[in-house]
Amino acid sequence: MQELLTVSIWRGGEDGEFVAYDVPRRENQTVLDVVTYIQRKLDPGLSYRFACRVGMCGSCAMTVNGRARWTCRTHVSHVARDGRLEIAPLLNLPIIKDVTVDMQGFFDKWAKAGGAFQATQTRKDDFAAIPPSDPRRRHANAGIECIGCGVCYASCDVVAWKPDYLGPAALNRAWTLVNDARDGMGAVRLALVSGDDGCLGCHSQQGCQEHCPKSLSPTAAIAGLKRAVAIATLKGKL
């Protein structure tokens, strides 16, 4: 007799509820495989989001047994407790339906943090030659692999109780651009992230760092922003 998983998955909107399904247990099965099985075999009305299935896009992020994860990279054997899984939408984001959340507010905060690169040269100019050993280049490289999956945002206690807080992903993005020698936004970006809703609102609890699937450290990036804001303030630039 084939072993079964008991999977409780969130159904509905903000006022929804968990619904339980029995799913066949398979070797090397991921949580995304489980969700896909439910949608294709048991309940075609289930709404969820995914794309690449190989940990490149981050769109399949959900809350699995209370922790935000990429479901395509999370094997059932690593997270199932006594043959049970609980799958919910990411926290701190509005639920559209089932385990699909609205990411607009998350990306709006990237814009509020000055997350767009501001060029100082045109395509007609020579490429900027920045050695890999440059300290600012190394700071930028440390956080540049963020793909905007929202796991850190869903895991941030400050976002949970202070919805206007920009969040670790947006602030990490701002730090990479502060250290980009080609970017011309300068102190303007620091002003955007300097308030209580920006880097000063971080309590350095490191939940973002602990949960980041890319092993990045938004906490370190935010600490860098705090230093940069303090220096710019002392110099009269803010």
Overall 3D geometry? elongated
CATH architecture of the largest domain: Orthogonal Bundle
Beta-strand portion reads: 5-15%
- The helicity comes to 25-40%
Using the CA coordinates, give the radius of gyration. 20 Å
Number of domains: 2
List low-confidence stretches: none
Tell me, what is the CATH class of the largest domain? Mainly Alpha
Main sheet record: 5 strands, mixed
Mean pLDDT: 95
| CATH fold-type name of the largest domain | Fumarate Reductase Iron-sulfur Protein, Chain B, domain 2
**How far is it from the N-terminal to the C-terminal residue, by CA?**
68 Å
**Assigned CATH superfamily of the largest domain:** Alpha-helical ferredoxin
Number of alpha- plus pi-helical segments: 10
Beta strands, count: 7
The ordered string of helix (H) and strand (E) elements is EEHEEHEEEHHHHHHHH
Helices and strands: which structural class? alpha+beta
Strand order of the largest sheet: 2-1-5-3-4
